[in-house]
Amino acid sequence: MKYLSSILLTLAATAVLTGCHSNGTEPATHHETASAALVQSREVDAPLLLHATGTLHAHESAQVSPQVPGRLVEVLVHEGDQVRAGQLLARLDDGAQRSAVEQAEAGFKAAEQAQSAAQSDASLATATLDRYKKLQADKSVSPQEMDEVARRAEGANARVESMRQQSEAARAQLSGAKTMLAYTQIRAPFNGVVTTRSADPGTFASPGMPILVVDHAGPLELQSNIDESVTSSLRTGMKIPVAVNGLNLTGTLSEIVPAADPASHTILVKIQIPAEKQLKAGMFGTAQISIGSHKAVFVPMSAVVERGSLPCVYVLDQGSIAQLRYITLGATQDNLVEVLSGLAVGETVVDSPADRDLAGMRIAPTSEVRQ
Fold first, then answer.
1. 80 and 197 in one domain?
2. Of 294, 296, 371, which Cα lies nearest the Cα of 337?
3. Which tens digits make up the pLDDT trace of 272-331?
4. For residue 203, what are the domain limits?
5. How far apart are CA 98 and CA 110, in angstroms?
6. Which of 46, 197, 227, 304 could form a disulfide with 296 if both were Cys (CB 3.0 to 4.6 A apart)?
7. Are 267 and 225 in contact (CB under 8 A)?
8. pTM of the prediction?
9. 139: Cβ contacts below 8 Å, ≥ 6 apart
10. What is the domain count for the chain?
11. Alpha-carbon distances of 292 from 45, 46, 231, 243, 295, rounded to whole Å
C-alpha cells in the first residue's frame, strides 16, 4: 500500500508540473536586425520575344564554275582573298580554243579577200555594162553582146552578195571562237571574298562544276527559319537585336520569304546586320524578334544576388524577416530583370544586399519602400 501511494503521489506531482508548464508562454525567437533599402516587385508590360537562331550569309554568293570543259592550269586565289569584279581567278588549258581562233581568223581573212575580189569584179562588170549601154544607143553592139555583158554584171553583183554573207559568217565564227577562248579565263563576278576553293591545277573542270565560291563584299545577313504562325507580327524594316560571336548588334529585317516550308511549317527571314570585320559567312547567330507583349514580374537587377551560382532575392515576410528565395530570370529591360518564377507581384525584397547573409534577419528599411 505504501508503494502504491508513492506512485500515485509521483504521478500527481508530474501532472501538476506539466499543467503549469503548458499554461505558460514559450520564449520569443530573437532575430538580429539589419538595415537595407527595400523595393517591391512590380508588373510590367514586357515584349514577347522569339529567340531565332540562324547562320550568317552574304547578301549575294556565287558558285564560280567554267563555261567550257578543260583542265585547270592555274588557280590564282585562295580562301579569304579579296577579289574585284572581273579579276582573273583561274585559267583552263586554252590550246584548242587558240587553234580555233587562229583558224577562224584565217577563214575571216580569206572571206574578206574573196569579198574584195568579188567587189572589184562587180565594179568592172558594172562599168562594162554602162559602156555597152552607150554603145547600144549608137547601135554599135549587137543585142546578143549586150545580153552577155548584162548577165556578167548581174552574176558579179550576186557573187558580191554571196561573199558578203560568207564574210559575215566568218566574222561570227571568229567572234564565237574568241568568246570560247575568253571562257577559259574564269573571272570574279563581283567585288567580294573567296570563301571556298574546291579545285586545284590539274583538275578537269566541266560546266556547272563549282571550283570557287565568292561572297559579295558588304554587310552580311542572318537567315533564320521561324514558325509560320508568328509572321503576322513581322514587318520589313523592323529593328532586331542580334548576337553573333560575342557581339551584340542591331539588325534590320530585310526580307520575309513569302512561301512556307510545307514540311517544317516555317518561313525564312533575312536580317541584315551591320558590317563588322570579325564577322564571317557561316557563323552562328541568335536574333530576339519581338512578336507582341505580355505582363511580367520585374525587380531591379541590383536586388538579385547569386548563391551557389543560382540567382535569388531576399524576400520579406509579414514580420519583416528576410528569407532567401531562388528565382528564375528572364529578359532585362533597362535596369530591371524579368522574374519567370519564384516571385509574385507586390512582394518586398531587399535591394543591393551585396555579400551580406540576411536570411532570418529582421530588416529595418533605410527609406520608403521603392516601387
1. yes
2. 296
3. 998 888 888 889 999 998 888 888 999 999 999 998 889 999 999 999 999 999 999 988
4. 65-92+184-217
5. 18
6. 46
7. yes
8. 0.56
9. none
10. 4
11. 10, 9, 11, 20, 11
